[in-house]
Amino acid sequence: MTKINNDKLTRFGFSFNRGGAHTARTMMLDELKEVITYLDDPNALKTDYSKAIDHENCLGKRSGKTRTLTFRHLVDLYSLDPSITLYRTLLFFWQRDPEAQPLLALLCTYARDSVFRSTAPFILNFTEGMTVKRQALEEFIDNKEADRFSKGTLKSTSQNINSTWTKSGHLTGRTEKIRACASPTAGSVSYALLLGYLTGVRGHSLFSTEYTKLLDCSFERAVELAEEASRKGWIVFKRAGDVIEVLFPKLLTEQEMEWLRE
Fold first, then answer.
1. 246 Cβ neighbours under 8 A, 6+ residues apart
2. CB 90 within 8 A of CB 78
3. Tens-place pLDDT, residues 40-82
4. How buried is 161 (Cβ within 10 angstroms: 0-12 exposed, 13-18 middle, 19+ buried)?
5. Exposure letters 236-261 (e unless 16+ CB within 10 A, then b)
6. Of all helices (H) and strands (E), which one includes residue 103?
7. Torsional sign, CA 116, 9, 95, 97
8. How many CB atoms lie within 10 A of CB 145?
9. DSSP secondary-structure letter at 106?
10. 3-state class (DSSP) for residue 237
11. Which residues pair with 245 in a beta bridge?
12. 149 close to 139: Cβ distance less than 8 angstroms
C-alpha cells in the first residue's frame, strides 16, 4: 500500500511544520504526566487542559506567561485534544501501561516535532555504550539546514533534544551522554505499530517502520510484545507463518477508518 501523504496524516495529528517545540523545551514528560494525573479524565477536552494549566496552575508555574507558554508547548507536542487520533490513542496506552509512558511520549513527540524527528538517525546510529557528544548533535542539526539557527539556539536545542532522548531511555548521564537501550513494552510497541498503520503500512512491514525503530527492539521481541497486547485486548495481532495482520478495532473510529480507505 502506498504511504498516506502528509496532508492526510495531519488529520490524525501528525505535524510537518518546519518548527518544533524542542527549540524551546524538551518533550516535557513530567508536565504531561502531571496534567494527565490532575485531570484524571481521558475524555477531558483541550479547554480543560487549558483551564488546568493556565487558570488552576496545576503545574505550579511562577507566572501567567510561563503557564501560557507551557500549555502552548504541550499542545505543539501532543495536541492535548482527545478528538485527535494521536493523543486519544496515546491516552489509551498511557492508562493501561504506565511503564510505556516515556516511549509513548517520545513516539508522539517524534510524530509532531520536525526538529526533534530529524535527529533520530543521529541518535539511533550510536550503539549501546557509545558517547554522544552535544557538539556533534549541534553539527548534525546545523548540517540539515545550515545557518538556520544561531549558535546559542543550536546549543539549547541540542540540550533539549538530548534531554528528551534521556527521558525516553535512549541516553544516560547528565553532562556526558551515553547511548543506552530503551525498554519497550506491549503498550509502546502497540502505539508504534498504530502510527505505522496510520501512515499506510500493513502486515509484516509494520515491524520495520521509523516508529518501531525508535523502540530499540528486535523483530522477535516486538512480535512477543504485540502478542501480549493482543491477549490483553488492546490490539488484534494474527500471525500465520510469515503472514502478519495487525488491526486496531478498539482504537480507531469509523471516520478514521474511512480516512484510511480514501
1. 193, 197, 202, 203, 206, 226, 235, 236, 237, 238
2. yes
3. 999 999 999 999 999 999 999 999 999 999 999 999 999 999 9
4. buried
5. ebeeeeeebebebeebbeeebeebbe
6. helix 101-112
7. negative
8. 11
9. H
10. strand
11. 238
12. no
pLDDT for res 1 = 37
pLDDT (tens digit per residue) in 115-152: 999 999 999 999 999 999 999 999 999 998 888 899 99
At residue 204 the predicted structure's pLDDT band, cuts being 50, 70 and 90, is very high
User: Shortest CA distance to 96 belongs to which of 215, 182, 191, 164?
Assistant: 191
Q: Give 125's DSSP letter.
A: T
H or E stretch at 65: helix 64-78
Q: What percent of the chain has pLDDT over 70?
A: 99
For residue 32, give the C-alpha cell: 504531561
Which residue is listed with cell 496552575? Answer: 57
Residue type, 153: T
Return d(Cα 229, Cα 224) in angstroms, integer.
9
The residue with cell 485527535 is 84
